[in-house]
Amino acid sequence: MVGAAVAYGLARAGAHVRVLDEGDTAFRAARGNFGLTWVQTKGLGNQPYFELTRASVDGWTALAEELHEVSGIDLAYRRNGGLVICIGDSEAEERRRFIASFKQQAGNENYDCAFIDRPELQELFPNAEIGPTVSGASFSPMDGHVNPLFLLRAFSGGLKRHGGSAHTGHAVKEIRRSGSVFEVRTGDHTFQADKVVIAAGLGTEHLARMVGLDVPVRPERGQVLVTERTSPVFPYPMSGLRQTDEGTVMIGATREDVGYDTGTTVQGFAGMTRRAIASFPFLAQLRLVRGWGALRVLTPDGGPVYAESESHPGAYVATCHSGVTLASMHANLLPRWVLENRRPSELSTFGPERFHVQPAA
Ligand SMILES: Cc1cc2nc3c(=O)[nH]c(=O)nc-3n(C[C@H](O)[C@H](O)[C@H](O)COP(=O)(O)OP(=O)(O)OC[C@H]3O[C@@H](n4cnc5c(N)ncnc54)[C@H](O)[C@@H]3O)c2cc1C
Question: Are 198 and 86 found together in one domain?
Fold first, then answer.
């Protein structure tokens, strides 16, 4: 997802771009995510991350329109706000506190989010009764959602339209400097390039080491469920619940530390459906048609990493755990950095050196 966005942005700016992608055997969060473009919970305690997320989402409408034009694909992007549903009084209290802290950090105007109580929440859902234990929700007009698979396909179509190419089944084994160029080896093939951007999800750490960068990432499993199609019931996406343009309801997602296991569990599915039904009891009537597990790509502090190697200038790394939300920034800011050799100020705090601070003696 990250590589597709950066590659598209580079090709659009006139660069000659090749994408080397491991393919179907790789871990690919891009194929298993929830499709939210989400701001309201991103960056408490990390103002630059909040600002980056907000700026990216502010650029999303233009990105969706541009990709529609260049690829012919309508991404089903909607930005009319999103909610975090609270069940019981303590969750409501906690959410109110979260909003207050965020407003204090980001400023009342900048952090556009408010707590709404039960009656107000019910008014937002005229076609779906909320459950008796729902205590309210936070609502933010900053949030939205999109079809993430269409997004991938549109990036890929746009890349080709701008003269770039993608090579699937090419797991990168080696990256090295050879004179003034990089040589990138995948099995029997060796590609040459003036610059290299490593955006390989959970494969990033291994590849980044080849250009002298230490970028720790770890997997976190998220399980997702999809129901049969139903009539329009959810006008807004929620953290953990959204209705797709096609009418299915997505229910998600667990947060599990299980290494590289992409499996699903009855326990995981049961916990998610229990909460979904507590939020909207009618969901118990819908049949489930699909479920999967996928791995998030997490750095130690959950923030993104954007860096250029000091030992191998011209080699860059980009990784994050909100690749859908940050897609517009990845397609715009990162290509500028790579092509202009100048790090945009918005990205100055996202280097991996923040993980390698020595404790004071
Ligand atoms: C359950 C779940 C829900 C999520 N929900 C959301 C959401 O609602 N909103 C949001 O913004 N984000 C969400 N995410 C996160 C989002 O999917 C990721 O941030 C995004 O996919 C990360 O993109 P990536 O390109 O870094 O990694 P991936 O999407 O994992 O892609 C990695 C790519 O690198 C390639 N690769 C790996 N190693 C090599 C190698 N050696 N050589 C060549 N290619 C290689 C793979 O083939 C793959 O294509 C969710 C993730 C999960 C798991």
Answer: no
pLDDT at 24: 81
- The residue with tokens 């993104």 is 304
Whether residues 324 and 211 share a domain: the answer is yes
Number of domains, the chain? 3
Q: Is 297 in the pocket of ligand 1 (CB under 6 A)?
A: yes
pLDDT at 27: 86
99 and 227 both lie in a single domain: no
Percentage, residues of the chain above pLDDT 90: 95
Give the distance (Å) from ligand 1 centre to CA of residue 114. 31
Q: Is 317 in the pocket of ligand 1 (CB under 6 A)?
A: no
End residue of a domain, out of 98, 118, 140: 140
Q: Is residue 40 part of a domain?
A: no
Any domain includes 56: no
**Beta-carbon contacts of residue 117 (< 8 Å; ≥ 6 apart):** 135, 136
Q: What are phi and psi of 340, to 5 degrees?
A: -100, 0
Range of the domain at 191: 2-33+148-217+301-351
Q: Tell me the whole-structure pTM to 2 decimals.
A: 0.96
Together in a domain, 93 and 236: no
Strand, helix or coil at 246? coil
Distance CA 102, CA 76 (A): 29
- Residue-wise over 156-171: b if at least 16 C-beta within 10 A, else e? bbbbeebebebeeebe
210 lines ligand 1 (CB under 6 A): no
21 lines ligand 1 (CB under 6 A): yes
Q: What is the Cα–Cα distance from 164 to 158, expressed in whole angstroms?
A: 9
Q: Is 95 in the pocket of ligand 1 (CB under 6 A)?
A: no
